Amino acid sequence: MAIGNTMNLYDRIPNNVNLSEDKKLQRALEKWLPNYLDWWREMGPDGFQEKDVWLRTAIDVGSEGWAHFDYVKMPEYRWGIFLEPAQADAKVGFGDNYGRPAYQEVPGEFRNALRRIIVTQGDTEPASVEQQRQLGKTCPSLYDLRNLFQVNVEEGRHLWAMVYLLHGYFGRDGRDEADDLLQRRSGNPDKPRILEAFNQPCDDWLNFFAFTMFTDRDGKYQLSALAESGFEPLARTCKFMLTEEAHHMFVGDTGLGRVCRRTAQLMKEGDVRELGGIPLEIIQKYINFWFSYSLDLFGGEISSNSADFFAAGLKGRYKEQDQYTDHLATNESFTMTVVEDGGLKSREVGLRNALNEVLRGEYVKDCEKGLARWNKVLAEEGVSERLFLPHPRFHRHVGEYAGHTFDLEGNLIAREEFERRQSEWLPTLEDREYVRSLMHPVYEPGKIANWIAPPAAGIKGKPFEFEYVRL
Length: 471
Ligand SMILES: [Fe+2]
Ligand SMILES: [Fe+2]
Fold this sequence. Notes:
This protein has helices spanning about 25-45, 110-130, 140-170, 170-180, 205-225, 230-270, 280-295, 305-310, 320-325, 355-380, 415-425, 430-440; strands spanning about 1-5, 50-55, 70-75, 85, 335-340, 345-350, 405, 410-415, 470. It is mostly helical. The structure holds fe (ii) ion (2 copies). One fe (ii) ion binds next to helix 5 and helix 6.
């Protein structure tokens, strides 16, 4: 049963959490708001702040809530705090406190762990906006430009979602963390963002599509695990964020699919490079790069943190309630492949210690579906080459496989061999420069860059030719 869900859309901070009844929290957030807007103007999309963009805005958290599309200038976007409605009698759904009432406040003993989870998630949101801030200047079409900005404003709102939790439930140190979220900068050596994938440059559209396909998809799985949380405000927050995240992955998935289609078309005409397209080998290298960095985001294969978070009821498994019947996970074990004495060995670990790997496995399955869609496009265009995911051990910087070198099939290889062959597997400087050389803006409604196919449909019933951004 859903309870208490008044939408206050026209408050200074739009919300459905009855913010006006909590004066202290409202004041704290109203103090943070101008700092957020300063950050947005400094680090948000460069050069388009005063333009009208045809954006969707949440007007309700229900399924109809996304029906609202209109021209908005980005700094005037309705950023705010939207949670899924509370469920009466919500319970902790897994772990040692399984079946007890859900936590409405932060349990003291888990305070630090929970704050860390929220800060780490929160840090990724502004980071991606920073990574993408120059992309508007090289958009392949107005349709794509609008999608970029839609993703950007929603990542901004995701930051709001996490900041609400920090302000609302963590007192002084939560407020400090919320300030720090506006201080760090993607790729800045002195004050980098927390996770490495969010310090990698995302300065061309192939990077952008691979990022939204693979890195935003990590977000989907992290948010899904947190949507199961026994800390109810976090679960409700993440559930609503997931509805926004779906569009980001759509942008990446269909974006790469359109690049594949265009490349296949050009392959039939002649030399893809000479014709100004992106060769499949380069697409494959970008997949290898972003997939491997995104796998790192799940954390170590064997992790006492994952066990602690699960035991505490803070972070569950993907679809914990729908997919599992044993919510304690105390007796099961998980067989992991680890590197030992210079070779690959199997090791049994307790399931709770393997939950990062379990979540990563769900993610890999989901990514494979994307690959299948792109390969279907290649097949439709009559091209016999296929794209693939590298082995999850390839090119890892976190966990069991970090510090070792593997080929694309996951075979352990000598570092010298990896170094000798990495230009076949990962984008080289020359590849990146080539891709960048294709990136010229196309701002005319209905027109599209040569290296990508148009979308199958426009946004919300509008044709591709629609003026999605008024320049
Ligand atoms: Fe996000
Ligand atoms: Fe996202």
